[in-house]
Structures are given as structure tokens and as C-alpha cells.
Amino acid sequence: MNQLIVAFFTGLTTGGLSCLAVQGGLLASSLEQQLEQQLDLQVEQEIAARRTRRSGKNRNRILVHPRLALPILLFLAAKLVAYTFLGFLLGALGSVLQLNAITRAILLIAIGIFMVGNALRMFNVHPIFRYFSIEPPKFITRYIRRKAKNGESFLAPLLLGALTVFIPCGVTQAMMAVAIGTGSAVQGAVLMFAFILGTSPVFFAVAYLAMKLGSRLEKWFMRFVAVTLLVLGLVSVNSGLTLMGSPLSVTNMIQAVKAAQPVAAADPSLPQSSTTTLYLSAGNGGYSPQVLHAQASSPITLNLVTNQTYSCVRSFVIPSLGVEKLLATSGTAVLSIPAQVAGTIMRFSCSMGMYTGEIVFDK
Q: What is the pLDDT of residues 299-337, one digit of tens each?
């Protein structure tokens, strides 16, 4: 459930803007007739408003024409259905592939690099970043525009909404990778449904206002999206490095600083850890304690305790040992860790690289 909430709010906060940056142009091109009709209607309403003001009547309110909103809603509905089905296929694919932690980490890094490249392209940093732009096949664009010009105004947004699966934005691609990682067709479908549902309000509001206001806000809007993509791309790369157990990730660097500080008080609900038997709480908000100390040159028993845990913390990973274990919602899972040399720092995390911790082997 926690993963679905994260997916929804990711779409609500950044996904809608990112998707609109990639797909907004095609949406506008398929709504040429509605835009022209809207402009004509606005002119008529403004003339009527001036006449009422001159006549002394207090009726200067300009009504919003519904024909501009309806095609956007049709577009979003078709997009929601298409991406839910895509999530189903991706989850089913993940159940067959069974991606390990390293593969998921590489995928996260690749997606992050792609998002950063897109942001730099939008900032016009260098012509080489134009290769990070994904455009739909020309025949799809021509077909949609032809349908719009032929008067099939509602068909065009429906087709475009369904065909956006071929031009996902960077944030959507990251969520698609998560859908594969679920390893379940149903979970993948629900995850993508939650994400696209979250993108819809922002997508609709900004698209509607953009069509009403024209290109006056386009420059500032594109800059905001570029900054958002840049930040999310860097976060994705960092998550991939964390999932690999790399000391170069920002998360692991912060963790190393924490390890050098005095050990925090243990969770009072856990049994007392010893040098060879460790207890780690896997809660919805992360692992506690984040730094464990163990005796070197001796096998270690690690007890992972969960209590109504539903977040990705349940998917426990130790990259250096190739350990990947899905924890029960509530209970205790026992892992045997082989003896390590003194000074070894064994990092662990969830399967998304969001929650981390480490075991330090002392002399």
C-alpha cells in the first residue's frame, strides 16, 4: 500500500508536469479545432460582455466552454487505461525475468542518466543531448493530425491517450521499471494505475491553462520541468548506486558518517543484540538501527523483525552477498551471514535503494 501511495504522489507532484512536457505538443496538435472554436467563442463572449457593460447591466461574466476540457479528459481516460494494461504486462514480464538487485540497479542508473540527459537537452546545454529525445513514429503523428482535421475531434484525443505508452516521459519510465520489479502482473497494473491517476489532475490543469494562456508561460513551464527532471534523474542514479552497495552513492556516504558517530540507542521493542546475533527492525519508515556492529571472523545471525510492514522495506537486499529476501508482513526472518574480516562494512537496503543501513565488523 505504501508503494502505491508513493506512486500516486510521485505522479501528482512531478509526473504530470514531466508527462506534459513530452506529450503536450501532440495533445495540442490533436485539438486544433477545439482551440480555434474556443478562440472564436472567447471573442464572441468578450463582445457580448462589452455590450452588457455599455447597457449598464452587471453581466460581464465570461463562461468557460466545455468543449476544450472534454477532449483533455478523454485523452487522460484513454491514457489511464493504456498504462494500466502496460503495467499488467510489465509486472508479468518481471515475474518471468526475476530481475536481481544488480539488474534493477543498472536499470535505475540508466533511467536516471536518460532523465538527466533530457533535462540538459531542455536547457540547450549541448547539441549532443538531442539524442535523449524520444519522439513517436511519424505515421502516428500524421494519423492523429489527419483525424483531427477531418472533424473526428474526440477520436484524436482517445487515440493519443492510448498511444502515449510509446512516448513515456522520464518519470513514467522510472515507474515502469518499478512495475517490472514488482514481479506481479496485478501489482504492476495497480502501480501504474495509481501513478497515472496521480499525474492526471496536474496534467489537466496545466494543459487547460496552457491552451487558454498560449505561449506566454511556456518558457517558465519548460524550465521548471527541466529542473524537476534533473533532480529526479540524479535521485534515480543515486538509488541505483545505493542498491549496488556502492560507497559512491550520497546515501551511503551519509551512512558512513553516521557509522563514525556514537551508536544510537537500540529499539526497546527488539531483543538485545550481541556481537554474533543481531536484531534489525524493518518498519514502514526504514530500518532501525541503521548501523549495526558485529564481531569480525565469526558467523553472524541477523534477525529481521517486521510488524505490519507494507513498504518496500520488506524487500531486503545485501548486494555484496547477493542476498534478496522478501520479508513477511509481520514476523522474524533469520539470515546467516558468513564470517567477515575486521573493518568490513556490509551495506543493505530495500529493493528500490530508498532505505538503507550497514553492518560494521569490528575486531
A: 999 999 998 887 778 888 898 888 888 888 889 999 999
- Superfamily of domain 250-362, CATH level 4: Cupredoxins -  blue copper proteins (2.60.40.420)
Buried b (16+ CB within 10 A) or exposed e, 7-33: bbebbbebbbbbbbbbbbebbeebbeb
Q: What are phi and psi of 290, to 5 degrees?
A: -75, -20
Q: Per mean pLDDT, which range of 98-112, 202-216, 324-338 is the poorest?
A: 202-216
All residues at 6 or more sequence positions from 141 whose CB lies less than 8 Å from its CB, including other chains: 26, 29
d(CA 163, CA 27): 11
For the chain, domain boundaries: 2-244, 250-362
CA–CA dist 243, 237 (Å, integer)? 10
- Give which of 331, 335, 271, 279 is closest to 307, Cα–Cα: 331
Q: Which residues contact 32 (CB under 8 A, 6 or more apart)?
A: 145, 148, 149
Which residue shows C-alpha cell 487547460? Answer: 208
Task: Indicate the pLDDT class of residue 81, thresholds 50, 70 and 90.
Answer: very high
- Per the listing, cell 491553462 goes with 209
Q: What is the CA radius of gyration of the chain?
A: 26
Identify any residues that bridge with 306 across adjacent strands, giving them in sequence order.
Answer: 331
Tens of pLDDT, residues 148-196:
555 455 666 777 778 777 766 656 766 787 787 777 888 889 989 998 8
Q: Which of the two residues, 72 and 88, has the higher pLDDT score?
A: 88
The answer to whether 256 touches 247, Cβ cutoff 8 Å, is yes
